[in-house]
Structure formats: C-alpha cells, structure tokens
Specification:
Blueprint lengths: L1 H10 L13 H33 L6 E4 L4 E7 L3 E7 L2 E6 L3 E4 L5
Antiparallel strand pairs: 1-2, 1-5, 2-3, 3-4
C-alpha cells in the first residue's frame, strides 16, 4: 500500500498534492462510533440521572421510599441533605437525600 501511495505521489503533477483517497475514513469511523456510543450509552444514562435528581428534589413528607441499602420507610422530615425516615413503629433513622433510590407508588 505504501508503494502505491509513493507511486501516486511521484506521478502527481508538480505543485499538486496527491489525493487523500480514503485517508479520512478512520476519522469518520471514529466519529460514527462516538455518535453511536453517545446515543446508546451516554444519553440514556444522563436521562436516568436527571430523572433520579428530579425525584429526589420533589420528595415530600409522607412519601414512601426505598433507600439504596434496601430499607423501606416513610419520610417524616426533610432538610437540605438529610431525610428522616420511619422504618418501623417508633424507629426513626436519618439518611442522606442521595441515598434514596426510589419512591414507592401507592399500594406497594
């Protein structure tokens, strides 16, 4: 292949650059791979993270939640970063807001 490129360069008229041929193809392929990764991996993860942040921002007293550790509880109070949960009768724990994994729907 290198001999072919050198032969093309030798036969090119003076002052004219040899054509690149498929020299730009690897760059185009890399850009296409990045675009595919963006739409298949990065963007869905960003959407899921945004949805989780919105859920945590809209927590309110009385919501039933599940923590990252799997503890079920009902929110008794919320400050900026701390959520007070009732997990059993007369058992209250404080967890960080970021440890809330999901909000349980009614009836679950």
């Amino acid at each position: 292949m290198l001999n072919g490129v050198l032969a093309m360069a030798a036969n090119a008229p003076a002052g004219q650059q040899p054509s690149a041929g498929f020299g730009g193809a690897p760059v185009v392929v890399m850009i296409l791979i990045f675009i595919i990764f963006y739409f298949l991996l990065i963007r869905p993860q960003q959407k899921q993270q945004k949805k989780l942040q919105d859920m945590r921002a809209n927590l309110k007293k009385g919501d039933k939640v599940i923590t990252i550790g799997g503890i079920y509880g009902v929110i008794l109070g919320i400050t900026d970063d701390v959520v007070s949960l009732q997990i059993a009768d007369k058992v209250k724990i404080d967890v960080t807001k970021s440890s809330i994994a999901t909000k349980r729907e009614e009836g679950t």
